Inverse folding.
């Protein structure tokens, strides 16, 4: 364990890999918080769904969150964390338009499918961090990278809300989801290029 993990994290190769992790977590939170924070708005104000049905759908999202996380984690076991993030991000990008379009066309239950396609990376990040960061500073990198990405990604919902009057809810939600997916793909590509630069097993 490092005596000064924050200082060591931001020196040399560890800093590079921390940046890669921060990009990935920011991308995921950007997509996920667009859904999480705006789901009630879409159901209640955009689709005018009655409160009882809206509450049922939002409650069902908790089950979908668990399913998406488990599916994402299982994918890591088969193809590794970097490939899993890449595959899931491509699915997110390709699936976001038909899912969000169908949702806004009047099918409120499609919000569960939207939830599924953006939640998967949460089951991958722990392995992703382990694969990239040396043990000496791994906990520090996980804490700063995950929470730093959360803080940056949490701006997604206000941005989508500001954009919606001028470009419609469809494109405001779609753009945010695509930005998140592209950030995760960028992180995966950078990780694949740099993954062997450090010995992640050293202590």
């Amino acid at each position: 364990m490092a005596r000064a993990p924050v200082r060591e994290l931001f020196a040399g190769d560890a800093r590079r890999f921390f940046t890669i992790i921060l990009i990935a977590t920011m991308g995921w939170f950007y997509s996920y918080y667009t859904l999480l924070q705006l789901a009630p708005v879409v159901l209640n104000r955009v689709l005018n769904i009655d409160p009882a049905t809206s509450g049922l759908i939002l409650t069902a999202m908790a089950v979908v969150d668990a399913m998406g996380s488990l599916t994402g984690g299982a994918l890591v076991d088969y193809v590794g964390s970097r490939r899993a993030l890449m595959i899931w991000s491509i699915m997110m990008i390709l699936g976001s338009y038909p899912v969000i379009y169908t949702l806004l066309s009047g099918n409120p239950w499609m919000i569960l499918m939207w939830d599924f396609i953006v939640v998967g990376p949460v089951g991958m990040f722990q392995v992703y961090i382990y694969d990239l960061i040396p043990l000496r500073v791994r906990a520090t990198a996980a804490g700063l990278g995950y929470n730093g990405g959360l803080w940056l990604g949490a701006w997604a919902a206000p941005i989508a809300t500001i954009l919606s009057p001028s470009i419609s809810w469809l494109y405001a939600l779609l753009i945010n989801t695509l930005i998140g997916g592209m950030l995760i793909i960028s992180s995966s590509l950078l990780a694949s290029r740099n993954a062997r630069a450090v010995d992640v097993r050293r202590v």
Residues 156-194 form the longest helix (39 residues). Confidence is low (pLDDT under 50) at residues 197-203.
